Amino acid sequence: MKISSATLRTFTTLHTWVGLVAGFALFVAFYAGAITIFHHELQAWQSPHGVDHAPQSLTDAQRLLDETLARHPEARKHVGMVFPGGEYPIASTYWQDAKGQWRFATLDHLDGIDEMPGGTLSELVNALHYSLGIPVAGTYLMGIVSLLYGLALVSGVIIHLPKLAEDLFALRPGRNLKRMWQDAHNVIGVLSLPMHVMFAVTGAMLCLVFVVMMALNPLIYRGQLMQALGPAMDTAPAVAPANREQAIGSLAMWSERSIQVAHERGIAAFEPAYLKLANAGDANAVVEITGQSPRSLGPLGAVALNANTGVALSAQLPGERDANHATLAAAYALHFGEYGNTWVRWLYFVLGLGGAFLFYSGNLLWIESRRKRRQAEQGAAQWWMARATVGVCIGVCVAISVAFIATQLLQMPALRDAIDLGVGVNLACFATWALCAVWAALRPPVRAAQELLWTAAVTTMAIPFAHGIATGAWWWRSAASGHWDLFAIDAGAIAMAIGFAWLAFATARRARDGERNSVWTDPRALAASVRSSSAPTAPAIAVRPDTPSSD
Amino acid sequence: MWSRAFAGIVPGFLLSAGLVGLFTWALPGPWQGTIVPGIIAFFVVWIAVMAASFQFANGKRAWAWLCGLAVLSLGALWLLQWLRWIE
C-alpha cells in the first residue's frame, strides 16, 4: 500500500507525541488493568478468612436482607444486594442514606459501613486502572488518555501499513537494538490491535460517557436525553409506591423465579449474581435480578419481577435485548473480559501485560532513536525520559506489589487495630511509588532500572509469603483444598517475580555488553573501557547509516 | 500541527455529533432505541475525524472545512428533526 511521505511524516509525529503524552498513564492502566481482570479472586484473596472459610448460603443472605431493611428505612426505597456464591463469598447489601452517601452492610457489620467490605486492595488496583488513583479528575483524565490512545492506534496503523506484511513476523534480534525493539513494538501492536481498538473506544466511553452525554444532549437529542435515559436503560419499569403495605417475597423465590423466567425465554443457564430492590414492603415492590448466562457475548442479563408476587414484569436477556442493552452489555463484557471461561480472562491478563510492554517499548524507542551514537554524552531529554520511564513504570509495579503485601500484613491480629486498612494500604502504595520515582530521578537510569527491577522481583516474590504468614493459606494448601483462585494469585505473583528478575538480568546485560554511548550504558563500565582503550581496538559497533526512524 | 489538532477537537466534535445524530435518527424506530450504540459510535467517529484533520494542508483549511461540515450536518439534523421526517 502506497502512502505519501508527507502523510507518513505527519502521522509519525502524531504517533510519537500522543504516545509520549499518554504512554505513562496507559502503562499504569494496563498493568493495573491486567490485575483487575481478577477482581473477584482478589477480593477472596485479601479477606483474612483464607482457605478455611465456607461461602455463605442463601439463608445467611436472607437474614442480611431482612436486617438491612429493618434497621435502615432508607434502604427500603432502593437496596442492592450481591448474592453469595463463587465470585463473592460474602453477601453484602448497599443503599444510599438520607444524605446520598453509599452505605454497605454484611452480617458482620449490620449497622452499615462506608466502604465495600473486603474491597480495599481490589478497589485500589481498580482505581489505579481507571483514574491513576486520582480522585474525581482522574477518571476524566483517563478518558482523554483513551482518546489519545485511539489517535496513537490510528496513526500507528497508518505509518505501519506500507510494510505491514513484510514487517509483521520479522523479529530481528541482534546488535541493532533499536530495530529489535521496533519489531517487538510493531508485532505486539499489530497482533493485539483489535483488543487495543476495543479498549480505546470502551475506555473513552466508560470515563467520558456523562460529559459526552451532556454535550450531545442539546446537539442531537433536542435536550430530551436525560428523561429518555431511565426508561431506555433500566430493565425494571419505574413504579411509584402504592402506599399499601405488603410482605415481600424471599431471595429463594426471586432466584427461582428469575431462573424460570430465563428458561421460558430460551436461556438455558441463568445464575443470579446481584439484585436491585425498590419499594420494599410496599404493594408495588419491584426487584431486578441480574445474572450470568455463560456462552454469550454480554453474559449479564436481567429479569424484573414484582417482588411480592414474583410476576415477571420485563427482561433483558442475551438474544432478546434491545439495541441499547445489547451494545452496553457487549461493551462491558469486552472491556472487562467477562465472556467465555477462565482462559479468556488469562488471555486478557497476558494481553494486558503485552499492552503495558507496548507503551514501555514506545518510550524506549523514543530514547533509542534519539541516541547520539558517536559520543558518550546524551541529551538531557533522553536522560529524563529514561528516568521517568523507569520511575513511573517499574515504580508502579513495585508499588502494587507492596500494596498486596501491606493488605495481608495490616490484617494480622498484631497490626489490625494499629492503622485503618484502607489508609495503610493506600499509603503504602503511593509512598512506594513516590519513593521509586525519586530514586529513579537521582540515579543513573540504567542503575535505577536494575535496582527497581530487583525491588519489583523481591516484593512480588514476597506476596505469596505475606499471604501464607497472615492467613495460613499457603499456596500448596490452597491448591490441595481446591481454592484455585487463591492459588492462582500466589502462583501468578511467583511467575511475575521471575519475570522481573529476568528483566533485571537483561538490563544488566545491556549495560555491560550493549552498544556504547547510550543512557543505558553503565557509567562504571564506560569508565573502565575508556581506561583500557589506550590500546587500539576495532570499533565495537558497526555504525549503521541512520534509517528514517518510524517510532 | 496544533491548529489542526484543535480543529479536530472543536469543530471535529460538532461534526462527529452531526454525523452520529443523522445516522442514529435516520434508523427505523424511535431515537431512544439507539442511545448507547450512538454514544459508542460517537467516540469512534470523533477519533477518526481528529486523525483525518491532520490530513489538511494547514490549520486554516482544517478549521474552514470542519466548521463548514459541522454546520451542514447539524443543520441537516435539526431541519429533519424540525420537519419531523426523522424521530
Overview of the structural elements:
With 551 residues, chain A is of the alpha+beta class. Chain A contains 18 helices and 8 strands. In chain A, strands 4-3-2-1-5-6-7-8 form an 8-stranded antiparallel β-sheet, sandwiched between helices. The longest helix of chain A has 32 residues, at 5-36. Chain A is globular. Mean pLDDT of chain A is 86; it is low at 534-551. Chain B has 87 residues and is mainly α. Chain B has helices spanning 2-26, 35-53, 59-82. The A-B interface holds A 7, 10-11, 13-14, 147, 150-151, 154-155, 158, 200-202, 204-205, 208-209, 212-213, 215-216, 219-222, 225, 228-229, 231-233, 322-325, 327-328, 331 and B 1, 13-14, 17-18, 20-21, 24-25, 31-40, 42-44, 46-48, 50-51, 54-55, 74, 77, 81.
Overall mean pLDDT of chain A stands at 86
Shape of chain B: elongated
Distance between the termini of chain A: 19 Å
**Strand-and-helix sequence of chain B, N→C?**
HHH
Which regions of chain A contain 5 or more consecutive residues with pLDDT less than 50? 534-551
> How many strands appear in the DSSP assignment of chain A?
8
Say what oligomer this is: heterodimer
> What is the CA-based Rg of chain B, rounded?
14 Å
Instruction: Calculate the mean pLDDT score of chain B and round it.
Output: 92
The helicity of chain A comes to: 55-70%
Strand content of chain B: under 5%
Largest sheet of chain A: 8 strands, antiparallel
Distance between the termini of chain B: 39 Å
Shape of chain A: globular
Assess the beta-strand content of chain A as a share of residues. 5-15%
SSE order of chain A, as H and E? HHHEEEEHHHHHHHEEEEHHHHHHHH
Count of separate DSSP helical elements of chain B: 3
- Which protein chains make the most extensive interface, counting residues with beta carbons within 8 Å of the other chain's beta carbons? A-B, 39 and 32 residues
